[in-house]
Amino acid sequence: MVAAGKRSADELLADAKRAKISFPKDKIKILLLEGVAADGIKMLKDEGFSVETMKTALTEAELLEKVKGLHVLGLRSKTNVTAKVFEAMDKMLAIGCFCIGTDQVDLKVAQAKGIPVFNAPFANTRSVAELIIGNIVGLARKIGDCTAAMHRGAWFKQAIGCYEIRGKTLGVVGYGHIGAQVSVLAESMGMKVIYYDVIPKLPMGNATQVATMEELLSTSDFVSLHVPNLASTKEMIGEKEIGQMKKGSYLLNASRGKVVVIPALAKALKSEHLRGCYVDVFPEEPGKNGENLFKSELMGCPNTLMTPHVGGSTEEAQSMIGKEVAATFLKLINSGSTHASVNFPEVDLAQADNSHRLLVTHKNVPGVMSEINQVLANSGANVLQQFLSTKGEAGYVIIDLNVEASAEVKQKLQLNKSCLKVRILY
Known about the structure:
Layout: H1 9-18, E1 29-32, H2 38-46, E2 50-53, H3 60-66, E3 72-75, H4 83-88, E4 94-97, H5 107-112, E5 117-118, H6 125-140, H7 143-151, E6 169-173, H8 177-188, E7 192-196, E8 208-209, H9 213-219, E9 222-225, H10 239-244, E10 249-253, H11 262-270, E11 274-279, E12 304-306, H12 315-335, E13 356-363, H13 368-378, E14 383-391, E15 394-401, H14 406-413, E16 419-424
């Protein structure tokens, strides 16, 4: 077995485009939901694929019908791909989440079905960070309440309860890409930054990591949450944690909707224990745009800024996300590359001349590669190169072999109970 060295995404994409795909490109069906950015759509259409787009999310029942005969599914945050939906898939090659998270997709079932899932984990980092900084200023100056009053025709000019953010302490919970970017921007505006993370993280600028969440909550004027959706982060900010926050401080959440106990937050705002909050994500969110769809205990609370999950909703971020995920689709379809998949072995391999490319997804069990190589030997295959990787319960291998043997090898491997998917790419 010959392992390939790491190559850039552009090199792999160029190799993939030079290859002659066995299955006609215009027969490959792609469905993109929830208003995926035009740049990503154009990339896929220019490649010759059959692309259908929709601006809305789909329910489980609607997906069950749509995924039959579908090769690629793209979505954002509101469409849930459940185990039941996976069972209805008969030709699916890949799923792309045109956003940071992949919570909406059952990743374990996807892996078991041999379907790689892709996302764009860093493309909207700047957009979210800028939104947080803007709302820190907005909360400190009661911009929301002032705006609402003026829309009613009221004029109340005052300085009481309004502050500069310079010299104030920002506590960042979760010091990943977004948390670190918020930290840098906040420091540039004169704030002191402390942060808490479950693992040691190298600070940006003059930020300081604290040992406990309680220390961060009790010493911060503003607390901004930037954590993933995990069992350990569900309702991590409840009545107890809010009670540990400084009286007159502010809470901001643009991470995941189930991180904060909303009724406890509303209670703290009404009692004036907290001076204000900004929330972009909610435990339950409407699946479409429209009037009278949103309800929350935060409605009507003082100095409360809310947005409809728009953290990464800038034209720049969506364009980058569209192009990034579309590029992963192109590499997978054109070369078999699973580079950057979140649930699947990452394999990429430059094309060998005058060969057929075989893609084999198999169970990660002892002896399976021995069985695959035995089939290759018995079929008289001349293996030019192959690259194997495993992740969890799945294994994935790309094999470039002589043209004459490919059909026989594919047929024999399809009879192997450990092989989940076997296909000739070109």
